[in-house]
Amino acid sequence: MAKVLQLTQAEAYEIADSFAQASACILDFRIQNRSSLSDDEATDLEKSEDSLDHMVVLFRGYGIRLIGSLAQDAVSELKAAISLGKEVIARINSIKKAIKIAGTLVDLAVAVLAKDPKGILAAVKGVQTAAKGSEDEKKE
Predict the structure, then answer these.
(1) Which among 15, 79, 96, 125 would be 20 to 30 A from 5, CA to CA?
(2) Tell me, what's the pLDDT at 47?
(3) Where are the domains of the chain?
(4) Sorting pLDDT into bands at 50, 70 and 90, what band is 139?
């Protein structure tokens, strides 16, 4: 039988709040860059915000339960990835990169909703790769 990890209410709220803060970072970026955003770019960012906000409600209302042997590892990686995504969105000034990072955060939230630790770890790598790509291009 697969290992099941039920996060405490406090842990689920902490993760939900982190996703809510990530959504707020995306909103801030969208507002600060509204004069530079195309309609499609603004829509993409807004869809990411809406998706994260919707999942935050689910995480708060139903908690978070992960199934699989990598569940505990996934939780610690998840928290670090959300934090990284928020930090990078706050620092970057590239619309395309913000959209990419916002999308990776949505992918991460979907993996949590799917209760899939392997998916969470893969999504964490997606956030890290998007964030690293943003930092590498900033240095050039």
Answers:
(1) 125
(2) 96
(3) 4-134
(4) very low
Longest dimension (CA), the chain: 53
Instruction: Look up the pTM and report it.
Output: 0.83
Collect all residues with Cβ–Cβ distance below 8 Å to 19 and sequence separation of at least 6.
52, 55, 56, 59, 82, 105, 109
Query: Please, are residues 137 and 94 in contact by the beta-carbon 8 Å criterion?
Result: yes
Q: Six-digit token pair at 33?
A: 């860059």
Q: How many CB atoms lie within 10 A of CB 122?
A: 14
The phi and psi torsions of 58 (rounded to 5 degrees) equal: -65, -45
Closest CA to 123 of 51, 75, 88: 75
For residue 4, give the DSSP letter: E
